[in-house]
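Whether sequence alone determines local backbone shape is best considered at the level of individual chains. When preparing material for the folding task, we compiled for one chain both its residues and its backbone structure tokens. The sequence in question and its structure tokens are set out directly beneath this paragraph.
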Amino acid sequence: MAQERTGVATLKSNPITLVGPEIKVGDKAPDFKVNKDLMTQVSLADYAGKVKLISVVPSLDTGVCDAQTRRFNEEAAGLGENVAVLTISVDLPFAQARWCGAAGIDKVITLSDYKTKSFGEAYGVLIKEIQLDMRAIFVIDANDTVQYVEYLGEMTAHPNYEAAVEAVKKLV
């Protein structure tokens, strides 16, 4: 049975339960399996040797998630080849691809946690009540050590974009 954390997050002021551990700076980044497309799974190892900015969103088809992904796509252009900017949601891979095409997203790699919720459970962002991943940001160095974490207390709030980008810039 996975650990559950209650009272740490809300959806429009309503309490929600997060499944999984709270990841902290200095932790070894947990492995995960997410889908790149319907059939291809990737894991943390697929981005070995790179700094990883992981932007977690509940669904790309919502206003804050849309804005968050667009912002990190813009920021990714200036971060260099040694940085992988990943957006993870529970959206189906073909929905992610459709959204990226319509939004002109070409620097962020979208990955889907729809099949196993492996990322959500490993990083403590799976929302028990609605089976979506809670908004969060993780910056992981090239040696897979967590260097920055932001769990949002309210699902509809924006993350601290500047702090996340600064955390990445310190590592490259």
Q: What stands out?
A: The CA atoms of residues 130 and 161 lie 26 Å apart.
